[in-house]
Amino acid sequence: MGASWVTDHVREIADYPTSGVMFRDITPLLGDRAAFGRAVDDLVTCFHDLEVDRVVGIESRGFIIAAPVAYRLRAGFVPVRKAGKLPWAVAREEYELEYGTDRLEIHRDAIHPDERILVVDDVLATGGTAAATCRLVEALGGTIVGLGFMIELSSLGGRARLGGRRTESLVSY
Hints:
The chain has a single domain, classed as Rossmann fold (3-Layer(aba) Sandwich), CATH 3.40.50. The longest helix is centred in the first third of the chain and has 14 residues. It has four helices and nine strands; from the N terminus they run ββααβαββββαββ. By secondary structure, it is of the alpha/beta class. A hairpin with a 2-residue loop joins β5 and β6. Helices cover 25% and strands 35% of the residues.
């Protein structure tokens, strides 16, 4: 979508969490009422043409963006969490990281067959977390209609792991 204004509200932190990584910190954007509102509005605009039953937010910064997007789209909100954080029966998906594996979980009754699902997170990097989230949703019978991100780190190739699904990012580095 080319929202270069986003970069004005993102703090870059070198060598975090490890040496050689440039971390994109969205907390300045979240703290600016106009920028936060515009980010939500712009993501909603990206998907205004879709019928969406539920918006899935990925832990944890994805929750902050996905919940108001769900509200604006008049859809339900569903959290996907790291293992051990949800109190009821869960479906889980393990995925690979560059330094090992991790697991995501979703309540088994959070998605119903044939529901149209929009997945939202703050950053698309390698795509592992987003791809695992899509597998969870589809295992419960949901249909992914799109994925939305505030920031895409295009050099890491995450979009390629999303199987050609409609993917929108406000800004790409």
